[in-house]
Amino acid sequence: MALSRVCWARAALWGSAVTPGSFVTRRLQLGRSVLAWGAPRYLFPRQLLIQHFWTPKQQIDFLDIYHALRKQSHLEIISYLERVIPLISDAGLQWHLSEMCTKIQRGIHPAIHDILALRKCFCSHPLGMNQLQALHMKALSRAMLLTTYLPPPLLRHRLKTHTTVIHHLDRALAKLGVAQLTAQEVKSACYLRGLNSTHIAEDRCRTWLGEWLQISCTLKEAELSLLLHNVVLLSINYLGTRR
Prior knowledge:
Domain Letm1 RBD: 69-243
Helix content: 55-70%
Number of helices: 12
Order of helices and strands: HHHHHHHHHHHH
Pfam family, one: LETM1_RBD
Subcellular location: Mitochondrion inner membrane
Membrane topology: Single-pass membrane protein
Keywords: Membrane, Mitochondrion, Mitochondrion inner membrane, Transmembrane, Transmembrane helix
Radius of gyration: 18 Å
């Protein structure tokens, strides 16, 4: 159990499906950016030092910066969901998705049963993982802090891979139990799944993570597009986090 926790914590902290190759590639890309544009103030430690070397204040500041970047795509993703509502063949599912989007735009945190009611929407056209449009995938990639500078087939493959890894981590974590995690492990797990946990109390983070796991462990592989969108759906209004 201890070994499982260590493996999970490392995966959660470094972004689960980020492989060493992609990690190195990202560092090289960031290094080239600094060389090309010069080293702006406050940029160097965030971009070129791994998280282990950040000070506690830098950890909070930098995680806030990264979350602000992914948050920029949240309303864009909700807009894409609204646009495809007429393309959904089931009138009941159309209504459920429309209600979900309206609630989110009003600042309401959706209930678990409201999200799970949409399972069939996300396993086939137009919201299944294999049917998502390129601009939609780019917005989802930004929400996952993944590069958008890839052709659509590679964007889709990367989103599938990351979502599948998170789904597997969720199943392992559910077996372990959220209560077995330390405060830092809980906050890291929440941040990986879309919630800016840096300013949220530990007990609230545990509650949110429990909601996420309940949704994730209910979904089948064909429904993982919903889990991908859950990065936005479940986090955008939690405790008024949309500012």
